[in-house]
Each structure stands twice: as C-alpha cells, then as structure tokens.
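### Sample
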Amino acid sequence: MASEGPVTRRVQVAEYPRLVKLKEMFNSKFGSIPKFYVRAPGRVNIIGEHIDYCGYSVLPMAVEQDMLIAVEPVKTHTLCLSNTNPLYPDFSISANNIQIDKTKPLWYNYFLCGFKGIQEHFGLSNPAGMNCLVDGNIPPSSGLSSSSALVCCAGLVTLTMLGMNLSKLLAKYKGLQWDKVLQLEEVQGRLGISLEEMQAVTEDALHSEPYSQEEICRCLGISLEELRTQILSPNTQDVLIFKLYQRAKHVYSEAARVFQFKKICEEAPDNTVQLLGELMNQSHRSCRDMYECSCPELDQLVDICRKFGAEGSRLTGAGWGGCTVSIVPADKLSSFLASVSEAYYQRSGRNLAPEKESLFATKPGGGALVFLEA
C-alpha cells in the first residue's frame, strides 16, 4: 500500500451534471445525501497481451469511461448497495460477515471483493456500514475492465471510509534450476540477457512442432505424475500437446514491443503515431499466429479498422472474442467511426445496440479519485 492517502478533490457538485443526477438519485433512494463520491476509470491494454502473468510489464491506459459511487457512512454495520442501472438489483449484507459466492458473477460481488480485500489486508474487525449508489458508463464485457474498476472503486470507498492511507524448459536448457523458475521473465533475469537475446534462445532451445506430455517429461527428466502435479494446473492437466515455441516466442517479442512502445512515447519522433501503430499491428499478428488468441471476427475487425484510417489496430482484453483497440489520428476519427460501423456492423447484420457500447472513441483519462462536495 502507498503511504499517501487517496487523491481527493473538492468540487461544486452543481457544476457536474452526472454528480447532480447521482446525488438526486441517492437522495431518492436513501432519503439522505452522499458524504463523498469515488470514481475509478476503466482501462484498455494498448499493448502487452498475455505477458503480465509471465512477469513482464504491459502498457494499459486509463480511459474516460469510469465507475462512480456515491457514499454515505451509516451507524449500523450493514452495506446497502444500489445501482443506477435497473438491470442490477439492490443488495444488502452485514459488513461483519462478507460471504462471496464465487460461482455467480453478480454485480455486487465485485464491490464486496474490493471491500473485503481492504478489510482483510488491514485486519479490520467490526467495520462500519454504508449506503452506496453505483453508476457506471464503462461498456460491460468490452475489454475495458468494468469489473476491475468497480473492485478498485469499492476498495477506495472503503479506504476513504476508514480514513486510512494508503517457463521451465528454457531454464533446463540453459542449465538453470528449472524447478524453481515460475515465470518466463525469471529465465531472462537469471540469464542476464536482453529480450532480443531471449528470442534467440527460444529459437535454439525449442522446436516449432508441438510438444507432447511425454516429450516434456523426457526434457525435464521427470515423470508424468510429477508433470501433472508440480507443473500443470487443474485446467491444463488434460491438455495433450503444448506449443511451447510459439508461446515463448510471443511472450518475449511482445515484452520487447512494450519497451519499444514506451521508448517511442518518451522520445516522441515526428512519426510517433505511425511507429506506435506498427507495433500494435505486430502485436496482433503475434497474438493471432503465435498465441492463437484471436478469432475470425477480431481479425476482420482489425483489417477493417486499418482500412479506414487506423494507424494500428489489435485485439485487446485477452482475445478469443472481445474487442479491438485502434490508434486513429483525430482528423480521421469521424469518418473512421462511420466507416467501421457500416463495414463491420451494418453490412454483416451484426447487432450494434446500443452503439456507444460497441464502437466508440476515447482518450487517456484520469486515475482514481475521491470527490468531496465543496
């Protein structure tokens, strides 16, 4: 946790139509007015797909769309949660006995995760209750982390309430203690070489044909039982073939692209947008061909976006469906949106309702924030 408290800003609520509406709805719901408001933005991963859990940095961007929660502390120990969207039902629970049903992705469970995370981190007992009204304009299931924004927002609500401050074959090949290596980044770190050199190691150490469980066992000198119990997860124990070369190739090349993207942003050459766009295009090709996390619809959408003015376009939000992110010059934005809408949605008969949740422009937004009424 950071040593500093949450960023707080005093505002005239009357100057912000969304806060005015939220305040009015809160008063109608709870018969009182909020003591403070908390917002947390959605985010989009511009580049760096499927490398974070391998130990590498990614490059996300906070967007303008966000979660906003109006909050009133209460003297009881009850959390009363409500949502401005009538599709999401009200919920209340004792703050002393938070139980989260992991089998059901109900909207309020994300709030409870943020609340309980802070509660457990600080070892809090007997926490106070609160009335909360949640309002979000992040399109759900769009790859913009609406659920994560709600978790973060709930955590910041809780902190504000409390007034508190805030992979193994390569290792074996290079003679490392492979059984102690958990992430691909650790292989690079222990070898002390660059990402470009790691890509060359991948070429030397791994063959492009898929590996069977038996071949992996021979390479590591372990039994099938050890493979299944010590290396494979419950979700992968029944997998019969492993494309190790392709996956490692993607991870190391994608990690290098993240650093290249960052460097270009810092140096800001005249052709910055074009250079960044090309890195995004390379990322999509690697996701499609090496990591195989794309799908025909995403590939088609990426091609259409590039055709109508995007300097770069790629899948984002993990892939296998989902959405794309494109970098588009501002002077081409209006025609870009109209052309993509017509070419991808209208011609194909795909549903574009509501349109603002399927195709929209955004730009870098601010971070999490606490609003106090001036």
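The longest strand covers residues 59-74. This sample (N-acetylgalactosamine kinase isoform X6) is used throughout the tutorial notebook.
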